[in-house]
Amino acid sequence: MSKDQSSGLNSFSKMFKVNRSSVIVVSALILILFVAFTVRMLPMRWEIGSGQVHLNEYDPYYQYSITSYMVENGLFSPYTDNWINNQQWYPNGLHMATSLPALPMTAAASYQIYSFFGGTIDLMEFCALLTVALGTLSCLIVYFIGKDFGGRAVGLFAALALALAPSFLQRSSLGFFDTEIPGMIGLLFFVLFFLRSLDPKRSLRTSLIYSIGAALALAYFICGWGAAYYVLGLTSLFVFAVVLLKRYDRRLLISYSATMGIGLLIAIQFPIIGLSYLTSAPVLLVAGVFIVLLLAEFMQHDVLAKNKITIVLAVLIATVSSFATLSYFGYIGNIAGKFIATISPVARASSPLIASVAEHRVTAWANLYTELGICALFFILGIYFILNKPTNRNIFLLIFGATGLYFGASMVRLLVIFAPAFALLMGLGLIGVLKPFMLLLKGTPDTFTKAKRKMSLVNKKYSILGVVLIFVILLTQFAFTPQTGGVPRAYSNAYMPTTVSAAGLPVVPNEQMTQWLDMLTYTSNNLHSTDVVVAWWDYGYWLSVMGDVTTLADNATIDEGQIENLAYIYMSSEDEALRMITEKYGQKNVQYILVYISLYLFEYEDSPTGFYSYPYGLADEGKWAQMARISGGARDRLISEGYMTVDNAWSNESGFGSSDEDSGQWMWNQDGMDSVIYKLMSSTEFAFAENSNGVISATSNEVTLKYLKIEYISGLNASYNPYNDLVPVVGLFKIDWAAYNAAHPTH
Fold first, then answer.
1. Cβ(476)–Cβ(377) below 8 Å
2. Contact call for residues 431 and 378 (beta carbons, < 8 A)
3. Rounded distance, CA 356 to CA 313, Å?
4. Which of 715, 713, 735 lies closest to 523 in space, CA to CA?
5. How many C-beta neighbours within 10 Å does residue 80 have?
6. What is the 3-state secondary structure (H, E, C) of 348-409?
7. Distance between CA atoms of 299 and 305, rounded to whole angstroms?
8. Which residues contact 72 (CB under 8 A, 6 or more apart)?
9. What is the 3-state secondary structure (H, E, C) of 665-722?
């Protein structure tokens, strides 16, 4: 072989030389992404038998309806067609141009590409699976962020932590097709690109490219989730802190200006965002920080100290005066109530409607412990390590972690924002602890003396012990979790059916619970799309999207007054409820009213074959107290409108009974037993008991319905011990308007 040939072969082999550490890292990352994907697919176990993959919870069906419209009419059609969905919020309908576009546009565009290449699954199944794919993508993005912070090892541990974080796992598993998904994608891309744009080692051209990428991510976040106010505030606070710490440089001004300017310019093109977004308090904070940056840039020049003070004071006075003037004339938009409630959880108590939503509750210690686990130790250590090295990047992460923890503790839903900050800080803390152990395990230099070798040997033994201990900690965090009986946290949080496949109950049944699916099939096949079904607002999306009927309210909560009216209808007597329906909504289309209960079945003491049924508290029998509080919160308005009187008005559930001190059971008074909700629940329970051929006895009092008749009850044929003695039942009642009008001829 000639010398040239040998040289050529060596060059060829070098081209394909594989770095062993890179192979290990890539393999580990692929494994983490595989775990992230598969654990999010676990709810599929309950969907296979039905032949249809459903979405999870309630709000995703709203997002699905917009996506479906975009697929049929074009991506911008909800905003150009002036589309009003008349099957929601009867009689006015819901103006769909007020919908955030990021998620439905992403899904509609992806589905059209998928269909172009011959895909055959239906849109709902595609949306359910897209959530899993985007959740897995988020874990990949956080790997690159972690890599920038502390190397590939930090990135891998951060990706693993995010992949199995309970809050994020719950909101990115199969079917959770909601705003948190584009929010997380936008947040992570923004953090990745914005921090890279500030890297002084990069050229100005590269920084500008990353700034544009951060701007696009910011626009996507704003158009995808209302919590985008958080990233605006986070970035403003970070930049302000950097200036206060005297770490300002011109690159910060350029990156911040380009990112915020381009991002906001793109976002306000959509009607729901609009120009008014620029005058909201968080965005004005962005403008205020921009002025601070201009001042900081000005201070970099040679100016007399006396002139600097004069100019700073003048700018501050002008800025404060401008904001005060804008506020006085009403140009500064108010922050929505739920955002105020997030900043100050105490404010939540003043709004029964906000407080009634489970995901708006203050995070309990149990939720934090479940979220953090024993790796909270590494999270704290991560904070310690970055405090010892206060770079701009680390300052951002410190503020991200602190604010994320605050808002996550304020509202349980926002733990999902804290999840990536926790993953990054945990990864940094873990690698920071492991690093000295790993250095000691790399071997002893031959130049050591005998004594030093003995000491090194001891250090090696302790290092091995330390590494094993950390491995055990990680094992109990991600694999065999003690607080869940040995079941991995990820498994216990992900192995849940979609809400509709569990009939709305937070349980893990042996098979799909079809009570709600059967009811929605019935309404779709037997009722008209214009028929209005009165139902508590939780179920509005299910009924309008899957049930193909019209509803009064849903989870959009755009009209608090209508939800108060709905609560009043359920808590008042039949006569008063139908009077409100007649006067506010008319009798023509409002034909049905629905109730949903969960019954706990337990055996007779003296009969091994018989059962009692008892309302368990997971459905409307647990939600009626919120109905009482929400309608009671509108007491003054309802009195002025003539629906309540001073004598029969109520403020909360205490107007309908009291809790028995000995048994803890609720004891209804006469007003309670006359209420529509009590009559519907009791009638549905009695119908279930009667269908059992005498085996089951109802524990509620038997009632007589005056103007409501049973139309269809789903769940009557459920076996008596199907789901750990818990049976959901959905009752649909038809309003007998003829009987009501005969009793009230003036109406």
1. no
2. no
3. 47
4. 713
5. 12
6. HHHCHHHHCCHHHCCCCHHHHHHHHHHHHHHHHHHHHHHHCCCCHHHHHHHHHHHHHHHHHH
7. 9
8. none
9. CEEECHHHHHEHHHHHHHHHHHHHHHCCCCCEEECCCCCCCCCEEEEEEECCCCCCCC
pLDDT at 287: 87
- Burial class of residue 93, CB neighbours in 10 A (0-12, 13-18, 19+): middle
- Domain residues of the chain, as ranges? 503-743
The residue type at 162: L
Pairwise CA distance, residues 33 & 433, whole Å: 25
Helix (H, G, I), strand (E, B) or coil at 314: helix
Task: Give residue 487's pLDDT.
Answer: 67
Low-confidence ranges of the chain (pLDDT < 70): 1-18, 301-316, 318-365, 438, 440-464, 466-467, 479-487, 490, 604-610, 693, 719-724, 747
Structure tokens at 174: 């199969």
Distance of CA 650 to CAs 347, 542, 647, 679, Å?
22, 30, 9, 19
pLDDT value, residue 448: 42
User: Helix count (H) and strand count (E) of the chain?
Assistant: 31, 11
- Extract the tokens encoding 50: 């039905």
What are 602's strand-pairing partners? Answer: 612
The token pair that represents 73 in the structure block: 């009419």
Question: Exposed (0-12), middle (13-18) or buried (19+): which is 668, by Cβ within 10 Å?
Answer: middle
Cα 677 from Cα 147, distance rounded (Å): 56
Asked whether 400 and 191 are in contact (CB, 8 A), the reply is yes
Give the number of other CB atoms < 10 A from CB of residue 626: 20
Give Cα separations from 651 to 571, 633, 659, 726 (angstroms). Answer: 11, 6, 16, 32
Sign of CA dihedral 498, 501, 504, 505: negative
